[in-house]
């Protein structure tokens, strides 16, 4: 019997949001999940969540981690950490895909070449103006 057909572990009807985030492997440690809650980076059903906020099946959890915002729907409540394939079955990820980033060529000068001359700078400016500016850096 493989992990995809194995039944989900039984769990309570509801649990703390910090414990659930850790159990489904959205954060590495439970203290990271609690810190994210205290920092205002976690919302449950569009309300700011403290670490002790309860989550139950059907709730929407939005968490901002490492510069990205993940939006997940709670499908199954667990309190103990389980394997990654089973944990992934406990929620539905509704995070929008990030927009593709325009790649502009990187202009590099030889190391030790010194300051660009006036002619070099004009050529670089001309080359840069041929490409539209990319999205602003975060």
TrEMBL record:
Residues 15-87 form the RNA-binding S4 domain. Residues 90-138 are annotated as: Disordered. GO terms for biological process: cellular response to heat. SUPFAM superfamilies: Alpha-L RNA-binding motif. SMART domains: S4. InterPro entries: HSP15, S4_RNA-bd, S4_RNA-bd_sf. The keyword Ligase does not apply. GO terms for molecular function: DNA binding; ribosomal large subunit binding; single-stranded RNA binding. It comes from Nocardiopsis dassonvillei (strain ATCC 23218 / DSM 43111 / CIP 107115 / JCM 7437 / KCTC 9190 / NBRC 14626 / NCTC 10488 / NRRL B-5397 / IMRU 509). It comes from the Bacteria. Belongs to the HSP15 family. This is RNA-binding S4 domain protein. Keywords: DNA-binding, RNA-binding.
